[in-house]
Amino acid sequence: MRARERSNTLFEKAKTLFPGGVNSPVRAFKSVDGAPLFMKKGDGPYIWDEDDNQFIDFCCSWGPLILGHNHPNIREKVIATIENGTSFGTPTKHGNALAELIVENNRFIDKIRFVSSGTEAVMSAIRLARGYTGKNKIIKFEGCYHGHVDALMVNAGSGLATFGTSSSAGIPDGVINETVVVPLNDEEAVKKAFEIHGDDIAAVIIEPIPANNGLLLQETEFLTFLRTITRVNSALLIFDEVISGFRVGFEGAAGVYDIQPDIITYGKIIGGGLPVGAYAGSTEIMSRISPDGDVYQAGTLSANPVAMSAGYAQLEECVKPGFYEDQEKRTKRFVNEINTFAEENKIDFRLTTIGSIFWMKFTDEKIQTAAQINPDSMVTFSRLFSALLEEGIYVGPSGYEVGFISKVHTEEVLDSAIEKFKAALSKIA
Length: 429
Ligand SMILES: *Cc1c(COP(=O)(O)O)cnc(C)c1O
Known about the structure:
Layout: H1 5-17, E1 39-43, E2 46-49, E3 54-57, H2 72-82, H3 93-104, E4 111-115, H4 118-133, E5 137-141, E6 154-155, E7 162-163, E8 165-166, H5 173-176, E9 179-182, H6 187-197, E10 201-206, H7 220-232, E11 236-240, H8 252-257, E12 263-266, E13 277-281, H9 283-286, H10 305-318, H11 323-344, E14 350-354, E15 357-361, H12 377-391, E16 393-394, E17 403-404, H13 411-428
Parallel strand pairs: 3-16, 5-9, 5-10, 10-11, 11-12
Antiparallel strand pairs: 1-2, 2-3, 4-13, 6-8, 7-9, 12-13, 14-15, 15-17
C-alpha cells in the first residue's frame, strides 16, 4: 500500500478547521475508501501528494487544466502580471485581451461579462433570463449540475414536469417552486412542462454535454428541439458550458452541435487554473446587464488581472489550429484500447467519451439519463478507484464524475496509463 501518513495527519487537522475537513464536498472521499490525498505539486500530467506518491492526473482540477499542471506560459504570464499588483477594482487591459480572444473566436456570442466562478456565472445568467423575458420559471434537467445556485439545487421527482424537491437544506419553497425539473432526452416531458407553465418560463437551462452526473450525451435532435420550443414560447435557451466550454472545441458544445443558445455560461478552463467564470450572449441580451441595463450584477474581483492573464495564456494555446483535433485523437485511442481490453476480458466496464472528456461506466449500455445509472455500480467504482491509486492513477473520487485528458497527456503518458488501467481492471474483475 502507498504511504498516506502525511495526508492522513493533514486531514485530521483539516477536520478541526473545515466542515468535513474540506472546502468543497466532493474532495472529501466520501464515496471511496480512505482519507483525501493532500496534493503538494503538479507538473505536466503528474501530481504528487504530501507523502511523495506520484500520479498521472486525470482529474486536472476537475477540468480547468487543459494544458496540464504548471504550464510555463501560464506561470510566466501570471508572474509578469502579478509583479504590477494583484487587483485594482478598475478595468485593466488583461480583461480586454481575454474577452477579445474569446469573442472573436466564437460565432455564438457578441458580449461577455466576467465573474469569479461557474456558480456565479449561472446565477447571473438566470437573473438575466428573468430580467430579459419578464418571466419567472426555469426548466432544468435531472442529472445536470449548474453550481450551487439556490434555484437549481433541485432534484427531479420521477413524474413528468413536476416541481422538484430541494437537494439542499436552506432553500425556500418559494425558490424551488420556480424550478421545473424534467428528465434528459425526453421531449414529451419538456412539452408537458411548456403546456403547464409556458407563459411563465423564462429559460430552459441545460448542460449541452451533461458531464457532472456521468457523461449523459444527448442527441443533437434533442438539443435542436430545445432551441425550437424555447423560441416558440419566447423563453431563452441557456447552455451551461462551464465544463464543456473550451473543452470540446473553442466554441464549446454550441460549436459542436451548431446550435445558437441565447446565453452561454463559462468557467473552469476559461481561468487557466485561477477563479474565473463568465456569461455571454448577443449584444441585445447582454445590454440588459448593469450599467447598460436594469439587471444588476457586480463583483469586487471580477476580471481580476492575474486571473485574466492565466486564462489568456491558456486559451491562446487552445485557439491554435489542430489543438482540439489532437486532444480528441489521443483521447479516442486511450478510450478504445481500454474498452477493447474490457470487452476481450468480459469486464463490465466501458469508457464513454466526447472531445477530451471520458467517463467510467460499469455497463456496455448507452446511458443518457441520470436514472439509467445503477447506484450499485458506485461500489465497483470505489474498488476501481483504490486499484487505480495503487497503480499511480488519480481520477476524481466519485463514479459520477468524468475524467479529463490534457495537452500534456502525450501518447507516451497515455500508453503508461493504459497499462495501469488494465492492471487495475484485472484486479477488480
Ligand atoms: C463546475 C460546474 C459549475 C460550477 O462551477 P464552480 O466554478 O464550481 O462554481 C456549474 N455548471 C457546470 C456545468 C459545471 O461543470
